[in-house]
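Worked example 4.2. Below are the chains of a multi-component assembly; read each line carefully before continuing.
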Amino acid sequence: MGDTLKIVVLVKHVPDAQFDRHIGPDRTLERSESILSELDEYALEAALQLSEARGGEKAGNQVIALTMGTADAANALKKALQIGASSGVHVTDEALAGSDAWATSLVLAAALRAIGDVDLIVAGMASTDGETSLVPAQLAERLGLPQLTFASSLEVEGRTAVIRRDGGTTSDTVEADLPAVVSVTDQINEPRYPNFKGILAAKKKKIATFSLADLGLDAGQVGSAGALTRVEQAEPRPARTAGTIITDEGDAGVKLVDFLAAQKLV
Amino acid sequence: MTMTATLVYLDVLPAEGLRKPQLDLLAAGRILGPVSAAVATPPSDAVVQQLGEHGVETVYTPDESDLSSYLVAPQAAWLAAVAAVAQPGAIVLDNSFEGKEIAGRLGVRLDAGVITDVVALEADGTAHKSVLAGSYEVSAKATSPVAVFTVKPGAAEAAAAPAAGSPTVTTVEVPQGAFAHAARITGRTDRPRSGRPELTEAAIVVAGGRGTDGDFGPIEELADALGAAVGASRAATDAGWISHDFQVGQTGKTVSPQLYISAGISGAIQQKAGMQTAKIIVAVNSDPESPVFEIADFGVVGDLFKVLPQATEEIKRRRA
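Applying the procedure described above to all two chains together yields the following structure tokens:
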């Protein structure tokens, strides 16, 4: 297999965080106005750079975008193909609605086994909707793989992946043998935009679709039925209301301190 | 009210005594029921005594002492082995990168529901958290026999137990093969420290954005006068004016201070995401149309290079 890499990038179709997002009466997220999760673009870019450094698709490298979600989630895959992924895999099934991280990792692990012979699995640092950052660790546990998470740099030398991970007080170099699960932060690179050529090329790229049955999974293991956590209540945070707004007439710094003093903050 | 036997995971233990966030975590665990502690490094006698004072009945330690040079798979494997001995109904970890990842792996090993980013716990196992970047408050429960929680700083305040006990210390072996899938830490460098409070734990945050035009001087001086942490908008970190470590917002840190002072930040939804749970928001911006004024308790339309230094001087004058 030489130096070529078969990389799977996990992508998610999420409500656009630029707009107000809402939780519906069934206590799940309303999924209109959805896009490829912004944080997944960094994962895709990292994968494409690793592939290109090894001669890209022509040399036998693959960057496969994998998603799980409704029919609409194929839009996240299409965007990934336009940006440069070589093919897509879409796991879709009505029973998946309401899946938590536990069920999501179960399904993605099965999909990765079906894809087979994967060297590297790359994810974003979090989904911009669920925000738990649990899936990479759970996926690694299910597949018996090491995880290198929150990478602000990523290199692969031979069969070893090396990342830099910036914590609160230290910056660590962490390495693991391939295959491995990696998650990357938004500091790792500048994601590219799809260009006209990429958009045209994407039309010829293939998306494979799997149902739960195709993956040998049972509906009861996933979705709301299989979830191990339950949201009991979801309330929008009361909207903040504007307070006192003044225009500086030369003494606003003092007035600001007056306000802080009145609130017993100085 | 049924009490849930709770296992609290503590990572590196300072020999001289537990850190305040670790004691807070024990207090969070005690909300659920009697606590035992799984500590990743062998505890000193002083630490064992301190654990007893904070209500810990049993302390579990690993037989291998170098769990700390690996990332998470071995810790999760060991913690699962501890859980097999301790039989807890709940496991509580901190909300750090490592805490969440160990929790995630543990969730798979124990078929346990994991709830992250917990800001408050109730005795019946209900966990409260903010979602969608602080725009919703949810309460959630695990439906599995074991629940795993990662708890944010400030969810509970450390307190000595009514009666101090002497915990038993039990060694639990790190399972064979636990290191097979470990990521190895091969290098570590200290990051520069500002001497200011940690951004996510600070009671006061002063944050600057595009309006600073790269000069964070007035932000830092006001922060120091208030004993505050410095924060920044994504525009400021993307411009390279200040390290990404200081970024507050959707892809940065989420803060919930008593006071958040925003200077030269428009307050677009991405930035608002990281700070809207602050108790009091003060905004200084030259553009009266900035969205930040819609959520500010006190706003100044003005030049931050004039308003902030004047406020800093005024605070110093009143203190003098």
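Take a moment to check your reading of the output against the notes. The helical segments of chain A are 38-53, 74-83, 101-115, 135-143, 196-202, 223-226, 252-262. The longest helix of chain A spans residues 38-53.
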